[in-house]
Amino acid sequence: MGSRVEKVLFISIIIVAILVYFLVNQKFTNTKIAKNEKSIEISNFIEYDINRTHLMSTLLAKQAYQIDGIWFLAKPFVSTDEIEYLKSQRALAKSGIIEFLDDVRVLQRDGKRYESNKSFYNIRSKKIITPGEFVISNLSHIMQGVSMEYDVATETTKAKNVKGVFTIKKAK
Question: What's the whole-model pTM score?
Fold first, then answer.
């Protein structure tokens, strides 16, 4: 019938053919087909977050649309009592957390500025979390670092690998 190599090769071809047959004919019943249809689309979007006593925040966007419970925002802009603005080129929002992407800029009411490429803002806890690199500046200092968490309510900042330059003025 042939050599051992030919027998092993013949058996291998048969096994591969059987495997291919079962893989091709396998029925995929658990596959979910995502339609990704826009359920809502809004231009010049404004959302006010109000508690029982006052306005907590305002969210504006040039365009907003929702797909599967996630809001996609173009040119989002958030303003609160403590933050003059938090803005970027685009953002994703779901369940009270807004993920700002591309050229994120924050200006606090005291003049302090933050810049990064990606930041998360939790509307309820009033925290800004920047997982990557960031820059903080004002008139007297500039700082750089990574993994910043800024609590807007308590005005506390935590970060890693912080490097800064401070300008100290002499008392008159």
Answer: 0.71
